[in-house]
Amino acid sequence: MEHYFTNNPDLKSAIREIPYTIKNTNFTFLSDNGVFAKNKIDYASSLLVTLFLENHPELNNAKVLDVGCGYGFIGIVIGKITNASIDLIDINKRALHLCERNLKKNKVVGNVYCSDCYEFVKNKYDYIITNPPIRAGKSVVEHILLDAKNHLKDNGELWCVIHKDQGAKTTKKALEVCYNVEIVGKSKGFYCFRAKIC
User: Fold this and answer.
1) Cβ(141)–Cβ(132) under 8 Å?
2) Fewer CB near the terminus (10 Å): N or C of the chain?
3) Which of the four CATH numbers 3.20.20.70, 3.40.50.150, 3.40.50.1820, 3.40.630.30 does domain 43-197 have?
4) Across the strands, what pairs with 83?
5) Nearest to 139 by CA among 100, 176, 103, 167
6) Which of 153, 148, 132 has the alpha carbon at shortest distance from 63?
7) What integer pLDDT is reported at residue 1 of this predicted model?
8) Any bridge partners for residue 28, and if so which?
9) Gap between the Cα atoms of 78 and 56, Å rounded
10) pLDDT of residue 5
11) Residue 127 β-bridge partners
């Protein structure tokens, strides 16, 4: 089975378009085989974006990092709606190529680059946002969430979404070691967290 956090250049391509609308703004995302949520916008990602935008309708060029960006849904929507400055990272090269195309398709400016978690992340951000790759394993997810603090500005926020059956409650406890954690919303078993550095 091919996972969305691996690279397989031999995987047959089948580009498709996925429409999405939020706050009276229309988006179209190109997707393909071998990437996360290839056939439709992921519910948890949509929930995360919706709750984030309810709390931050305008960001005035604040810096946002989308970790595990896939084809760019989270970062692109936030960038367009809020005018944030966005960076998008992933380890999946096919997803990154789609992400670059989706930035252009949706007329959003952003920086896209390959990074294994924070390996090549040099900047500090006002917001780090992620729907972490649960199937990559607990250690990868914890690395993304707990090491975010090293890449956040003072008063910066980490936003993430995790299902209750995939460890939401234990994740909250792990986050509370180094963050002040708030459950911003819950839906269909998914918990959306906002974490600020203690």
Assistant:
1) yes
2) N
3) 3.40.50.150
4) none
5) 167
6) 153
7) 38
8) 19
9) 9
10) 52
11) 64, 157
How far is CA 68 from its chain centroid? 6
CB atoms within 10 A of CB 66: 28
What are φ and ψ of residue 49, in 5° steps? Answer: -65, -45
Q: Of 179, 155, 140, 185, which is closest to residue 4 (Cα–Cα)?
A: 140
pLDDT tens digit at each of 198 positions of the chain: 344 555 566 678 899 999 999 999 999 999 999 999 999 999 999 999 999 999 998 898 899 999 999 999 999 999 999 999 999 999 999 999 999 999 999 999 999 999 999 999 999 999 999 999 888 888 899 999 999 999 999 999 999 999 999 999 999 999 999 999 999 999 999 999 999 988
Per domain, the residue ranges of the chain are: 43-197
- Per-residue CA distances from 136 to 28, 50, 87, 104, 141 (Å): 27, 25, 22, 29, 7
Q: Residue 185 is encoded by which pair of tokens?
A: 């919303």
In 3D, which of 81, 140, 146, 143 has the Cα closest to residue 108?
A: 81
Contacts of 57 (CB under 8 A, 6+ apart): 81, 82
pLDDT confidence of residue 2 = 44
| pLDDT value of position 136 | 83
* DSSP symbols for 99-142: HHHHHHHTT--EEEEE-STTTT--S-EEEEEE---GGG-HHHHH
Which residue has tokens 């919303």? 185
The pTM score is 0.94
